[in-house]
Design a protein that fits this description.
Layout: H1 12-19, H2 34-38, E1 49-52, E2 58-61, E3 65-69, E4 75-79, H3 100-110, H4 128-142
Antiparallel strand pairs: 1-2, 2-3, 3-4
Length: 143
Amino acid sequence: GRSNQPVGLVDIYPTLLELCGLNPEPGLDGHSMAPLITDPARTDWPYAAVTTFGPGNHAVRNERWRYIRYADGSEELYDHATDPAEWHNLLAASAESPGDAIREVVETMREHLPTQDAALRKGAERSSGYAAFRDAEEARSRR
């Protein structure tokens, strides 16, 4: 079967440990996907997938929502149930003032944000990914 729950690459290692019958190491960021493998229709998955692009830029995805917070504090929220292509940012300045339900979603998604950024690895400043991040930050600062 196929699960609709979002997961991240950090979830692969804890999953392999569990499937091999090994104890997980303390402090792992990921979560075992074994429950989703044994029951793909499971809907009570409490975890969100987190993606980071440079310091302070994080996206959080659960089954329905995608929330993005940028290093400059700006935010985006998309409802994948009604807007899977992410055309309508529910937190855009042009959007109506978000109601209590949207504010509650944002607060819930913020709980999944990292509390600190990982240090850049040695040599990361020479990578094409870092160059893209730096260029995006420079363009953002010129606006």
